[in-house]
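1st attempt posting a full record on here, be nice pls
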Amino acid sequence: MLSHGAALAGRADWMPAITGGVVLTLATALVLASRHAGPRVIWLVVATAAVLAWRFAPWLLVFVPPVALNIAFGVFFATTLRPGREPRIAAFARLERGAPLPPDLAIYTRRLTWIWTVLFFASAAIGVMLAAFAPLQVWSAFVNVASYVAVAVLFVGEYAYRRIRYRHYVHGSLFALIRIVMRDRRALAIDASQR
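the predicted structure (as tokens):
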């Protein structure tokens, strides 16, 4: 939001510093919080890349992070759509229910995982196209506002649709679902590695 505010205020020159500061702060915090060497190395590389970009190619800090973030989330969902894998949304639903999914919910959650995958990859592609062909303010409005609104609309809209379409099943509250996803992300990773 700060970066978008800078674009709207005609201070595009502030955008690299804003984004660079956020990326560097988050990467450093994640280096310190990681317990395993692999994630530490990845976040250390991200922090180093942010510093180097800030020094030598500041505009990379403006245009690359939104695309990279959308691609990372797209991959997060897409990799679970391979044969023999449990789709990401199915795993969340299974944790919410505490039991294997009935066939109709298994089909639905696979399709929903596809929808999330397409949303994130489409957001990355649109961000690249707008960066290449649209004014900075239009690009910023999309990557810093509209894409986050789209994620929120899909998340809340899907929850409402599911409660109506699959009302014959018990559903937890929206906040309970968010807690499950946040609390059980490690359980999901362990479970996925055993499948």
